[in-house]
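note to self: dont lose this again. the chain is below, predicted strucutre after it. 281 aa total, dont forget to put it in the shared folder this time
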Amino acid sequence: MNKKVRYTFSPIEKSLPLYMTSIGYNPQELQFNRPEGLPYYQWLHTDRGEGLIQINQEQFILKQGDGVLITPYTFHSYQPNPQVSKEWSTMYLTFSGLAIEQIMDALEMNYTFVYHESEKKLFYQMISEILSFIQDSKLDISTINLDLSAKIYSFIIALNKHAIMKNRIFRMQTYEKIKPVVEWLEEVFHKNIGLFEISNQAQLSPQYLNKLFHETFNLSPYSFLVQLRIREAKRILLTEKDMTLKEIARMVGFNSVSHFATTFKQREGMTPTQYRQLHQK
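---
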């Protein structure tokens, strides 16, 4: 592969034990910063070049054949390693499911870890096959989620067998205390809510809740909420190309398009329009 490929999914069958949310290949990986993490498991693997990834407070180098599995809501950021080369080609997969935690617990791999593949190009081959499967013009859309669910399970088993662990990163203990409210925010971030509503849902004082969020994500509860809105806006900007900024702002929870655009630029370093144009090249 030498061209950028990306597929995203919004599974109708969220009752499936496993479902895919995105998959792709990026010949030139960019810089990403996710203080709130992602709401699903993320797998990232170096095909060529070298990358730097920071998880919580630790930094790791991802050389060719190295990869990482990141658990939901784990702070991370990554970029090409400027000391070696600007080139960093990656493959990635994100997934979740009704039974995902039970499966990961049963396989004793429900944690974030950095690894090196024991069989050269094995994961490259598996991802290539899944991408080819998705690209098949004869693919029956009505059964794609079921088919991909089976392929994710096979991939997880392969990761369990062929990933030689280099580093294990432990989850912040404070996360377990706020996990219920974090999952609630994922469902309601588009609504008109603030710190008062978040504190009520968590059944914690605003001061203590703020302390827990800062210790876990280095963000206040409200900043975390805004990050969720920006993350969803970025997804819509790339997948709903005809949707206006006003429509996107309203959909993700901003009261006005000007507030949306200003906040987006403050956090991403560019306007929503510039972001859309950059990633559509």
